[in-house]
Design goal:
With 162 residues, the protein is of the alpha+beta class. The chain is built from four helices and seven strands, in the order H-E-H-H-E-E-E-E-E-E-H. The chain starts with a helix and ends in a 15-residue tail after the last helix.
Length: 162
């Protein structure tokens, strides 16, 4: 099998957040937009400064932007690299990990995505979310394989023994 073929087989991918949370994000953004349209007559009668209009517009863009990333964020494990698309892309290699902590509350997994706290060797902490916890567990296995010393080779059989 080619190197590219083996790389494809070792790729795991998942939505970063559960479907219920993604649906809730869409509903909230749509509701906020509908509320803004409903409030438009009273908003027009208010005297707005340029700064307040700017802040109001930026707040609206931030709500839409975060809602977008909650819906479309993906977590992918390719080989020994874990990546999550988010407002900025998060990325860590198994060899750079100093410590891992998996946070998974089974009773709340429909609302709260399992997440992995990653402490890097040279400082820095990153949270990775994945609706399918197997993506995070597989990355934990990658880190553990690198951390454990390889077993010594078995002793060679002595001559004359069967």
């Amino acid at each position: 099998m080619s190197e590219e073929g083996s790389k494809k087989s070792s790729t795991l991918e998942s939505a970063a957040f559960p479907p219920l949370l993604r649906t809730l994000a869409v509903v909230l953004v749509v509701d906020l937009f509908a509320f803004a349209l409903w409030s438009l007559p009273s908003l027009r009668t208010t005297s707005w400064s340029a700064t307040s209009l700017f802040v109001f517009g930026v707040a609206g863009l931030c709500v839409v932007w975060v809602g977008y990333w909650i819906v479309y964020s993906r977590t992918r494990l390719e080989g020994d690299v874990l990546t999550q698309t988010w407002l900025w892309n998060k990325r860590v290699r198994a060899e750079d990990v100093a410590q891992l902590k998996l946070v998974h509350i089974r009773m709340l997994e429909r609302v709260i995505a399992p997440r992995l706290l990653v402490r890097r060797r040279f400082g820095g902490i990153t949270w990775f979310h994945a609706y399918d916890p197997q993506v995070l567990v597989a990355f934990g296995h990658q880190v553990a394989q690198r951390a454990m010393p390889s077993a010594p080779p078995p002793p060679a059989p002595e001559a004359g023994t069967q």
